[in-house]
Amino acid sequence: MTVGVWVLGDQLWPEQAALQTCAPPTPVIFIESHEWVRQRRYHAQKLVLVWSAMRHFAAELEAAGWQVTYAIAPTFAAPLQDWINTHQIREVRVMEPSDRPFRALLQQLQLPCRLTLVPNNHFLWSTAAFQEWAQNRKTLVLEYFYRAGRQRYNLLMENRKPVGDRWNYDSENRQPPKSGLKPPPPLEFAPTAITQAVIDTVAAGNFATYGQVQPFRWGVTRAQAQQALAHFLAHRLPQFGPYQDAMVAEHDTLWHSLLSPYLNLGLLQPMEVIEAAIAAYKEHHLPLNSVEGFIRQILGWREYMYGLYHFLPEDYGQSNYFQHQHPLPAFFWDSRQPIAMTCLRLVLTQVERSGYAHHIQRLMILANFALIAGFQPQAVKEWFHAVFIDAYDWVMQTNVLGMGLFADGGILASKPYAASANYIQRMSNYCQGCAYDPKQRFGDRACPFNVFYWNFLDRQRHRLQANGRMGLVLRNLDKLTTSERHALARQAEQWHHQHA
Ligand code: FAD
Ligand code: SF4
After folding, report:
1. pLDDT tens figures, 237-267
2. Nearest atom, ligand 1, residue 263 CA
3. Whole-structure pTM over 0.90, yes or no?
4. Which helix (H) or strand (E) holds 72?
5. What are phi and psi of 93, to 5 degrees?
6. Number of other CB atoms surrounding residue 161 within 10 Å
7. What backbone phi and psi angles, to 5 degrees, belong to 30?
8. Are 92 and 13 in contact (CB under 8 A)?
9. Quick one: pLDDT at residue 420?
10. Which of 436, 454, 491, 499 to mutate to test the pocket of ligand 2 (most atoms within 8 A of CB)?
11. Using an 8 Å Cβ cutoff, are 92 and 80 in contact?
């Protein structure tokens, strides 16, 4: 019986589960479907990254003796049918997609042969293992999942205890930025000929995209992703911890790894990244707070978000706990429009330029503003999906709806990540020279983060007061007079009106 393997665009690893069940010269197909990418906007560089990485990986498999078909077509169905007929394939094997919408698409395809889904091996915790951990728990907080991961894989453990006798170094990893910080630049790659061809296709404008297609500096092969990892370990990991939460106008990425696009495509695997970080820690005596802080992101947050996505009900994506309904202002889609708020302008122009923002820029600038201003959560999720180079459904739902917007009412966050300008002024240098004053709450120069923060607490008090962790801020809210609260509501409404 002839078996064929269909490799999806985020499954670009020679040891991925479906390829592992076969050997060269088994027929393999890759498909770039133009209708699929027309369903939503994508960052222009995301299209380039995914298609170029697919084309490079297809060439690598071909060189290794697989019979590779690379199709560029409107839909998936037609090239699949042709390929099945040409090779007389009786069984198509696909590694289980990470995203639910793609699983649904597979179920709708009416192939003239058997379709076998092979369990996904791109994550450490299978969906079944996560389910076993999560079911019957009163709380699904990250910390317990992360500790379970450290024990399960025996990582940074000594005599069954965490190395350094602490699980968590967060308190050392929240330093505000000092002036004169000089992070080493991340490793960048010049476009290959294959990449340049994709850039030309995307630049021709046949797809509705977001952001700039060039300069494109991302790696597109496993070898380049491994170089990016080695560069990060040597130059950026030692200082990753202390300034993990800081934001600096002159340095978009600080000491962050920029590895998410590679991990999410399968060009890097989570365990190899974690093991390489531990090896660097041992060999070069790196600071434990930086190494643990980094491993927590991958072994903890990344696995947790994937596990939760498949554990939570499918209608999670529709959550809207606060019943927020405001549309996103147009400047989110085009930063050439005037944006007086310096922090938003800097982060939005950075995302247009590169498809990247680091975690605190995403959480405490973009999502925080969307939360307190009351933008409709599904529109916000759609925006995040459209503009980031590393966006996929599995990582978007819980990060944007759960962590960023608290739209799930607190399944994964114990309280909303809502903050006023005070946080941004402390953790960044964005406020210097801004048209708004981060200290003011009322009047023309009042920072919109302050107006919206206090107005959010006031509007949502009936929901927030049940949360014990909100007690202190709600007591501060009580210090405002009724006329002050009304003034904030008017200012918030005016802002929405001006940006409608
Ligand atoms: P580093 O700070 O260097 O962290 C190392 C790695 O840890 C990352 O590469 C990533 O693989 C992993 N990681 C850390 N935090 C998370 C997390 N919360 N969820 C999943 N993985 C995590 N991550 C994406 O991969 N794609 C997204 O579309 C995405 N959207 C986000 C939207 C919001 C509102 C928030 C709050 C977070 C989002 N994240 C997303 C998580 C995180 O912000 C990014 O993974 C990280 O910023 C990527 O940059 P980096 O590789 O330099 O990360
Ligand atoms: Fe952002 Fe407000 Fe600071 Fe301006 S003053 S940069 S709007 S937080």
Report:
1. 999 999 999 999 999 999 999 999 999 999 9
2. 11
3. yes
4. strand 67-73
5. -110, 135
6. 11
7. -120, 140
8. no
9. 98
10. 436
11. yes
